[in-house]
Amino acid sequence: MIVGSVKEIKVHEYRVGLIPPHVSVFVSMGHDVIIESGAGEGSGYTDDEYVEAGARIIATAQEVWATCEMMVKVKEPLESEYDLLKDNLILYTYLHLAANTPLTQALLKHKVTSIAYETITDDFGGLPLLKPMSEVAGRLSVQEGAKYLEKPFGGRGVLLAGVPGVPKAKVVIIGGGVVGTNAAKIAVGMGADVSILDRSNRRLEQLDNMFGNTIQTLYSTPAILASQLETADLVIGAVLIPGASAPKLVKREMLKNMRQGSVIVDVAIDQGGCIETSHITYHDDPTFVVDGVVHYCVANMPGATPRTSTQALTNATLDYGLKIAAHPINGLMLEDKHLANGLNTYRGYCVNHEVALATGVAYTPLKSLLTLL
Length: 373
Ligand SMILES: NC(=O)c1ccc[n+]([C@@H]2O[C@H](COP(=O)([O-])OP(=O)(O)OC[C@H]3O[C@@H](n4cnc5c(N)ncnc54)[C@H](O)[C@@H]3O)[C@@H](O)[C@H]2O)c1
What we know:
The protein has 373 residues and is α/β, with parallel strands linked by helices. The chain has 14 helices and 15 strands.
C-alpha cells in the first residue's frame, strides 16, 4: 500500500499524521510511505528524519494526494483540498462530519473510504483516538491556568502551591473524566488544593481510589458548585455528555461571587462550553475577562504542544493504521467492529447513522453494503 501524509493547512495546526519512528514500522511491513516536504516541521520532525526512516519526500501536497492509496492526516480536509479527494482513497484522520455537510458530500461524491479517528471504539466502551487529546488538554489546562493566575497575565497573582505560611491556591475541576483526571494529576503535583465535582458516583469512587486524600471528591449539584466557585482560584470545565452540547453549569450570576482575578479554563468549549459566559478563543489571543474573572476557552488546546500531541496521537493511531493498510477494507470491516465504527463513508455511501442524520445525507447500513459488494 502507498501510505501518504501531508502538511496540515488549518490555521495554527502544527501536528502531523505520521512521525518517522512509525514510518519505519510501515516500511518494515512492506508499505511505501510518501511524505510532503516539511509536513513534520511544526512538530519538530525534519525531512531527513523521514528519509532515514524509509519514507520518500515529495515536493507538493498535490502529488502526495494523487499518488497515495491511504492518506494519514490529523484534521479533516479543508475546502481547498476537496478536489484532491479521489475514488477508492482511504482517508484516516479526525473528520467530525456531523458538523460538516459540505465535506460529507465531497467524500461521498469522490467515493472516498473515510475512517474517522473520533468514531473508532474499543472494548471498554471508550473512544481510544480521542483519549490522548483529552489527556493533553487536561494536563495543559492547569499549566495554562497557573500562567493566567499570574498578575502580568491578568490573574489574581497567586501561586498554585503557595509557600510555607501562605495558603495553596484552590483548583475546582468540574467533570472527573479523562480531562478532569489529568488536570487533577497536574494540580496535585503542583501542590494545589484540588476538588473534583462529578455526577457519576462510580467515577467519584474511582477518583477517590486513585487520588486518596490528595483531592476532595464532590457530588455535583448547583448549590455545591456555587459554593466551590466562591473560594476557587482556578476552575477547570471538563464535563461531557456524549453526543450532546455541554450543559451550562456555571451561570453568569455565579461569576459575581467569584474572586476577582480568578481563572476559568473551559476545556469543554469544543462542545459549546460548560460556563455560560464562555466563547471560543484561539491560541494567539486565548483569554477574555467577564465580571473580573479571566476566561481561557481555546477549542484546540493540544495545538499549543504539537510535539507532545503528535506523539500521543500517532501512538494511538499506529496500530489501527497498520491494520487498515494491511487488509482489504471489506473483510477488515466485517471482522473488526471497532474499526467498522470508525468507517464514515464507503464507496459513495454514508455508513454512519449519526453523520447521516446530522448532515441530511442518506444512510446505508455497512453490513448490507459489505454483503452486496
Ligand atoms: N478544548 C480542547 O482542546 C479539548 C481537548 C480534548 C477534549 N476536550 C473536551 O473536554 C471535555 C471533557 O472530555 P473528557 O474526555 O474528559 O470526557 P469524559 O467523558 O472522559 O468525562 C466527562 C465527565 O463529565 C462528567 N459529567 C457529566 N455531566 C456532569 C455534570 N452535570 N456535572 C459534573 N460532571 C458531569 C461525566 O460523569 C464524566 O466523568 C469534552 O467536551 C471534550 O470534547 C476539549
